[in-house]
Description:
Blueprint (H helix, E strand, L loop, with lengths): L1 E3 L18 H11 L5 E3 L7 H14 L4 E2 L9
Parallel strand pairs: 1-2, 2-3
Amino acid sequence: MIYDASYTDAEFPSHKDWGHSTWQEGVRLADETGVKTLVIFHHDPGHDDDFMDQVAKDAALTRPGTIVAQEGLVLRP
Length: 77
């Protein structure tokens, strides 16, 4: 599943009407529906590389195998 994850749950209340979601909500949805691989993408441009590295670590701990999209990423079946 490729999921729009622009924000964290902590950031979401101030962005809830912006039409984007959180990586944590992506994890919850993937878990509930039995998705094999979760790919989170469409990151907020205000998030720097250190922030995104932490998101990748947190996502991998929360749901092993989660992929955080980055420039140049190519997915193949």
